[in-house]
Write a structure and sequence with these properties.
- The structure holds two protein chains of two kinds.
- By secondary structure, chain A is mainly α.
- Chain A has two helices and no strands.
- By secondary structure, chain B is an alpha/beta fold.
- Chain B has a single domain, classed as Amidase signature (AS) enzymes (Alpha-Beta Complex).
- Chain B is built from 17 helices and eleven strands.
- In chain B, helix 11 crosses helix 16 and helix 13 crosses helix 16.
- The radius of gyration of chain B is 21 Å and the shape is globular.
- In chain B, 61% of the residues are buried.
- Classes of the chains: A mainly alpha, B alpha/beta.
- At the A-B interface, helix 1 and helix 2 of A face helix 11, helix 12, helix 13 and helix 15 of B.
């Protein structure tokens, strides 16, 4: 499914976070946000549910 | 003096350190040489935000006195270096490339700066960067940094000045910071060596943050041995950064000359042969593989199915971290950001949490795939960038569709972000030039904490070719 956030959606999200956004910024931020969500849509087809999203690696460096 | 000025300036940090130790070069003469070059060339290149002539010359005079007293000398004794203006320097303005911090003067050095100074380095100044190390700056507050190979082209970022200053011999070596390619990209576009160490190998203390789980300082130099030399100085546990490793730091120079015979090299298929990689880049990187084979390495193609998505995965995670860092200023000082920075941070602030969570899980999967490949190969090989340095104007064009946004932001990042997402070390090494005379760079990636093998492979290639010895036309 193609992401289709509108400028109204994005303006509302920004307002909810207290982030000021100019009309020019709003148009480009909407393009950027839609591009990111769309680029990551292929991930929905991967079996990610069982993968723990930890940022820190558990493996230790090799002994020297 | 044993060499004419420009020849001396282009020698590597290790060679210069030897000349200082042998009293063949004076630290004062060397420092003045680089200051003169900065004065003559940096008006066009804009590598520096702040130059420190008085402090540098004072340090050089102390270094010279120590040489004359025949004191034991540290590895960087008398060597002029420069750092990205993202690292705190006591008493010296540290802007992070932003108007928001244009009057910020830290009271203490970042750990990396303290270690470089303790090793005898002479700080020449603070280097230009994309605002807050984010990339995508439209109007640089402290001047547009330019590529010394062609002034109309991008020098790469975010450590733009770190790449320019090394390529143009405006310092002996430099320090950058790499969250998702910010050392390797400028190294690639400027034709120098850039090393991203293993995450946790080098302290982040005193460096303005972007992403907690990916930021790492890293050196840039005119040779692999210089990158090894600087890593030796800055690596190691720091109580001020509890996520640094306590593992002992090996001697990175010891195995540099051991060659690549018997090393197993995996060529990442999606990044080397993918449609986004420009033909000149692909040819140059394939030639690297052939050269390594000729030197005794065993190569084979390998696949990392998630790497085409790595750029987007990275931005969903690192940019969201950055949005958290900047949230207060975005609310109160939005107009003080560059337009490109502000739009990137606003976008990151609005990423749905479901998308972030999915990206975080995909990161773990990509990391597992990379570590699995690295269990069977000593190093992985691919281009550092899908193209040589693009024109500066291309980065300033307005974004009018989501497809333009995707093309601008995700493709190029997919080449440098896999190592960042996996926490592995990676190095960018010059491997040729386009027909228009711009540098091309190959990237090698190794196991976590195995910088020794990474540097060894890169050094063997470098010694067998000599691309690093070319000088940019704008630096005579």
């Amino acid at each position: 499914m193609v992401s289709d956030l509108t400028t109204d959606h994005v303006a509302a999200l920004a307002a909810a976070l207290g982030l000021p956004i100019t009309p020019d910024d709003l148009v480009e931020v909407t393009h950027r946000l839609n591009a990111l969500v769309e680029a990551l849509e292929p991930l929905a087809a991967l079996p990610l549910e069982t993968i723990e999203p930890t940022a820190r690696l558990a493996d230790e460096p090799p002994a020297s | 003096m044993t060499a004419a000025g420009a020849d001396l300036a282009f020698l590597g940090a290790r060679q210069l350190a030897g000349l200082v130790r042998d009293r063949k070069v004076s630290p004062v003469e060397l420092t003045q040489l680089y200051l003169d070059r900065i004065e003559r060339l940096d008006g066009r290149l804009r590598a520096y935000i702040t130059v420190l002539p008085e402090a540098a010359l004072a340090a050089a005079r102390r270094a010279e006195a120590a040489v004359m007293r025949a004191e034991a000398l540290a590895p960087l004794h008398g060597i002029p270096y420069a750092v990205k203006d993202q690292f705190d320097t006591a008493g010296v303005r540290t802007t992070s490339g932003s108007r928001i911090l244009e009057d910020h003067v830290p009271t203490a050095d970042a750990t990396t700066i303290a270690r470089l100074n303790a090793a005898g380095g002479i700080l020449l100044g603070k280097l230009n960067l994309t605002e807050f190390a984010l990339g995508g700056t439209q109007q640089f507050p402290f001047g547009q940094p330019r590529n010394p190979w062609n002034l109309d082209h991008d020098p790469g970022g975010s450590s733009s000045g770190s790449g320019i200053a090394v390529a143009a011999a405006l310092c002996a070596a430099s320090l950058g910071e790499d969250t998702g390619g910010s050392v390797r990209s400028p190294a690639s576009f400027c034709g120098v060596v850039g090393l991203r160490p293993t995450w946790g190998r080098v302290s982040r203390h005193g460096s303005f943050p972007l992403s907690w789980s990916m930021d790492t300082p890293g050196p840039l130099g005119r040779s692999v041995e210089d990158a090894a030399l600087l890593l030796q100085v800055i690596a190691g546990y720091d109580p001020n950064d509890p996520l640094t490793s306590r593992a002992p730091v090996p001697d990175y120079s010891r195995a540099l000359g051991d060659g690549v015979r018997g090393l197993r090299v995996g060529i990442i298929r999606e990044l080397t042969f993918g449609a986004d990689t420009q033909p000149e880049v692909r040819e140059a990187v394939v030639a690297v593989a052939r050269k390594l084979e000729g030197l005794g390495a065993a190569t084979e193609e390998v696949s990392l199915r998630l790497v085409p998505l790595a750029g987007a995965i990275f931005m969903a995670l690192a940019d969201a971290d950055g949005a958290g860092v900047h949230h207060r200023w975005l609310r109160t000082r939005a107009a003080d950001y560059d337009q490109g920075t502000r739009r990137r941070l606003l976008t990151a602030s609005l990423i749905p949490s479901a998308v972030q969570q999915r990206a975080a899980r995909a990161r773990a999967l990509l990391r597992a795939e990379m570590l699995d490949l690295l269990a069977r190969h000593d190093v992985l090989l691919c281009p550092t960038a899908h193209q040589a340095a693009p024109p500066i104007a291309a980065a300033r064009a307005a974004i009018t569709t989501r497809h333009e946004a995707a093309g601008r932001f995700f493709t190029r990042r997919s080449y440098v972000t896999p190592a960042a997402l996996a926490g592995t070390p990676a190095i960018a090494v010059p491997c040729g030039f386009t027909r228009s005379g711009l540098p091309i760079s190959v990237q090698l990636i190794a196991r976590r904490f195995d910088e020794a093998t990474l540097l060894r492979a890169a050094h063997a290639y470098e010694q067998a070719t000599g691309w690093s010895k070319r000088r940019p036309p704008e630096t005579a």
